[in-house]
User: What shape does this take?
Amino acid sequence: MDVLSEAPGATLSQLLAPKVLLYHDITQGGRVDARDARRRFSAQLDWMGARGLRLASLDDWIEGRLGPRDVVVTFDDALRSFLEIALPALEERRAPSVLFAVAQFSGRPDAARVFLTWDELRDCRARSVHVACHARTHVPLDEVPADRMRQEVSASTRRFVEEGLPQVVFAYPFGRYNDGVKAALIENGYRVAVTVMKGGADRLEVRRRLLTGSEGPAALGLMLSDSFFGIREGARRLVPRRFLKQEQPIAFERWGAHGFGLPDTED
Ligand SMILES: [Zn+2]
Assistant: This one.
């Protein structure tokens, strides 16, 4: 049976919501070589296409034109493997995507071997990619003092606009937010914000399904299955947070694997 049509246990809002996928570095910090990473990621896109899922654009998403068979592909952290490996595979299939970049990292020449530069982000925008904001320094916004949190949101938004990249959608670093963070996003004109694996019907709490890009058809089918996703989320709520570390984005560890510490600096 097609796992996509099997959805006992899923709520109505889950069934009607578009499926938003979250990728980071599809080479997984270099553990998968570039050719394999592209092949596996391409196979995922083709698998979705063969099952009648449509890879949808951010505009359709923002305007509420998405249905349950629409998939939005997002990438966090604007790592080099997006431009070099994932984007060609997406373009080959005329598939749009959303790329979330960290403002400070894209402006640092010493970070350019890991993160895309502003010029490269503009190049992505001129192609099929909506480039969106992932805060200023990638701190957990629900943990830092409120002043710092607001500055993270407003300074990064301003920087993106100055770089010619207007903003309507925001990705919370580590998927973490609270009511104060949501209020800051509204003040800065955001219409949609995305989390990781949690979230609800609120457009500022859109959950995403975390993928490495290497999952085969069975694992990908499970991750796209609303019943599995619903059950998994329910289970998460029963498990103490410390046991869920492996499901947090692995951004900092991965950057560490690149030998890149990224201390905060003043802009
Ligand atoms: Zn991130």
User: Anything to note?
Assistant: Strands lie at 19-23, 54-55, 70-76, 97-101, 129-133, 169-171, 192-194, 209-210. Confidence is low (pLDDT under 50) at residues 1-10, 242-261.
